[in-house]
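Appendix C: a fully annotated inverse folding record. The material below is reproduced so that readers can follow the format used throughout the book. The structure is listed first as tokens, followed by the designed sequence.
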């Protein structure tokens, strides 16, 4: 068991030391200083706590122990004054002296009460014991003063009660004085105990502060030694050795050896040695790569010049193609304009044909209406002829009747003759009108037939114009598609031309970058040449 404890102790310490050395340098230094500051803070806090405790004990010594003893002394003085005042009352030879002695007794009692208040603050239990005795002494003194005031001024003539009461008063004052003395002694002993406690506390605090100071000094020295040792271990040597190695590497000298301890591969000097070796290898590879880059950049520059020439030729060819496409686009635009104009003419012709068809249709309607009206007129003429014929018959009948009547019907016969003549003329006129209406009806029928043929012809014209308009619209659409195709081709050729120009610019940029790469490779070779390895 003991052996395992002995083995585990150093192992734990080694583990803690290894954990501490893995911390950053700033953290270790801060931990060391923090521990020293912690010890200093502990010393300061201990001193402050003890000072506060000493202050509290000193305050208690003054407020309780010393103040109680002083109050007891003041009470003793007040009791002595009461004794003298009692004697003054007894020995007074006048009423004035008795009054003054009584006033002294009252004043002494007031001082005694003030002293008892001080004792009450310092030692409440003792004050509770003294308070009844003080009250008894006050009653006895008041009774004694009242009894003396009733006696004559000659003490030899006093009653025996005066001496008895005076004896009681003296005994009470003596008892109270003894109790006050006991209180004073008690308070003094308590003050002595408090002083001894303060001294012991002060000695303990001093010993603790001295121990903490010694521990802080030992810890600071140990931490300083441990920090210096860990720093030296991490550096792998003295800081001057690390500075010298870093200076040689910064100057480009990679040939010097760095002195290392046996098995030292993780210190700063060991890492510097590894860095120097790896840097030498990297610089050698960089030098070889720079030479390869120089050769490659020369080949890139030569190939880039050939590519630039071919790109310029391609750009010139695309420029010619773009010009041809632009001319073709102009011709297509003209064709499109003519097709649009033809479509407009066809549209206007269609509108005129539609308008003529409408007029012809209206004329056909009017001819149909005239034909209807002519038929109605023929019917009316026929009716007139019928009426004229009946009128002629009636007139003939009237003439026959008038002839039968003889001379009396002669005038009526004349009238009948005139009516018959009018009927005949009406019939003749009706026949003429009928002939005219018949001729007009035939002409109207012929005009209606011609109108029907005109309507049919206008329909054919409208169909032809509509077909022409459709053909013109299709031609305009084809012209639009052709113009769009030509514009698309022109845009594509323009993009190809722009791409060729951009390629030419990129070729120039690549040439410039190749030249810059060549210059950088040359500069890199010069930089590598500064190092010796």
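Designed amino acids, in order:
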């Amino acid at each position: 068991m003991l052996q395992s404890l002995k083995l585990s102790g150093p192992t734990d310490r080694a583990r803690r030391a290894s954990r501490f050395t893995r911390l950053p340098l700033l953290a270790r230094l801060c931990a060391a200083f923090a521990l020293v500051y912690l010890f200093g803070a502990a010393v300061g806090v201990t001193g402050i706590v003890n000072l506060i405790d000493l202050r509290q004990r000193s305050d208690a010594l003054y407020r309780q122990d010393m103040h109680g003893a002083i109050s007891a002394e003041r009470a003793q003085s007040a009791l002595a004054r009461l004794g003298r005042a009692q004697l003054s009352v007894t020995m007074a030879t006048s009423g004035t002296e008795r009054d003054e002695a009584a006033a002294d007794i009252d004043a002494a009692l007031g001082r005694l009460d003030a002293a008892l208040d001080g004792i009450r603050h310092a030692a409440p239990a003792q004050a509770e014991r003294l308070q009844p005795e003080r009250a008894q002494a006050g009653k006895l003194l008041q009774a004694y003063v009242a009894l003396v005031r009733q006696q004559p001024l000659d003490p030899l003539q006093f009653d025996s009660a005066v001496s008895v009461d005076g004896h009681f008063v003296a005994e009470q004052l003596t008892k109270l004085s003894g109790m006050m003395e006991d209180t004073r002694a008690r308070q003094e002993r308590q003050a002595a105990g408090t002083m001894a406690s303060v001294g012991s506390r002060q000695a303990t605090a001093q010993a603790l502060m001295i121990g903490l100071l010694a521990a802080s000094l030992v810890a600071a020295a140990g931490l300083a030694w441990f920090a210096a040792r860990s720093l030296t271990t991490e550096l792998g040597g003295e800081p001057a050795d690390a500075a010298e190695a870093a200076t040689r590497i910064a100057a480009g000298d990679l040939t010097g050896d760095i002195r290392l301890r046996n098995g030292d591969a993780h210190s700063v000097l060991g890492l510097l040695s590894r860095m120097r070796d790896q840097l030498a290898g990297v610089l050698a590879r960089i030098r070889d790569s720079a030479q390869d880059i120089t050769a490659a950049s020369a080949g890139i520059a030569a190939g880039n010049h050939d590519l630039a020439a071919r790109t310029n030729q391609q750009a010139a060819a695309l420029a010619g193609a773009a010009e041809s496409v632009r001319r073709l686009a102009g011709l297509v635009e003209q064709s499109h304009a003519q097709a649009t104009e033809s479509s407009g003419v066809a549209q206007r012709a269609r509108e005129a044909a539609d308008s003529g068809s409408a007029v012809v249709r209206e004329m056909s309607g009017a001819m149909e209406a005239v034909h209807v009206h002519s038929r109605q007129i023929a019917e009316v003429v026929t009716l007139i002829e019928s009426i004229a014929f009946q009128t002629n018959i009636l007139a003939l009948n009237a003439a026959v009747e008038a002839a039968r009547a003889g001379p009396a019907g002669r005038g009526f016969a004349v009238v009948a003759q005139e009516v018959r003549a009018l009927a005949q003329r009406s019939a003749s006129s009706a026949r003429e009108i009928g002939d005219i209406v018949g001729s007009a009806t035939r002409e109207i029928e012929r005009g209606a037939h011609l109108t029907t043929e005109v309507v049919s012809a206008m329909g054919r014209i409208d169909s032809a114009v509509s077909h022409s308009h459709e053909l013109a619209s299709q031609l305009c659409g084809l012209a639009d598609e052709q113009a769009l195709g030509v514009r698309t081709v022109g845009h594509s050729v323009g993009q190809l031309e722009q791409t060729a120009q951009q390629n030419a610019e990129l070729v120039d940029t690549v040439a410039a970058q190749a030249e810059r790469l060549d210059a950088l490779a040359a500069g890199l070779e010069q930089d590598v040449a500064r190092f010796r390895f």
